[in-house]
């Protein structure tokens, strides 16, 4: 995966959700929440640490790991393995409120997050078929993205 980028203006979405859970919001937790909230791609713990260290030189790696764990157990962030395309690394993202799917290219390691009515209909059909009330839905699919498929098609034998 490429080096992480963070949106220029990270929102307050995760910070507000931390407050709503009644968790203590230290300056370093706020910084980590803002980094996660503004991430334009999936970040592993090391990437979160590197980004945080640039903004607060006093932050410790253990603070990052403890905070990620805290946010995860309170259902505020999801920990993803993204088909293990980067080995055993785990990535973190703010837990979305709706159905969430990751299409992971096992060739270029790109990740797409499609949305729309098709996926919502799929969620409803699966829930109805199984007699199950879905509260959290995450789906990961591994394969080849259209760009990698085109490159493979053009390769000479």
Explain how this protein is built:
By secondary structure, this protein is an alpha+beta fold. The protein folds into two domains: 1-95, Winged helix-like DNA-binding domain superfamily/Winged helix DNA-binding domain (Arc Repressor Mutant, subunit A, Orthogonal Bundle), CATH 1.10.10; 96-157, Ferric-uptake regulator, C-terminal dimerisarion domain (Dna Ligase, domain 1). The protein has helices spanning 13-20, 27-38, 45-55, 61-73, 117-130, 146-154, and strands spanning 43-44, 77-80, 91-94, 100-105, 111-112, 138-143. It has a three-stranded antiparallel beta sheet with strand order 1-3-2. It has a three-stranded mixed beta sheet with strand order 5-4-6, with no helix packed on it. Strand 4 (100-105) and strand 5 (111-112) form a beta hairpin. Helix 2 (27-38) crosses helix 3 (45-55) and helix 3 packs across helix 4 (61-73). The longest helix has 14 residues, at 117-130. The radius of gyration is 18 Å and the shape is flat. It starts with 12 loop residues before the first helix and ends with a helix.
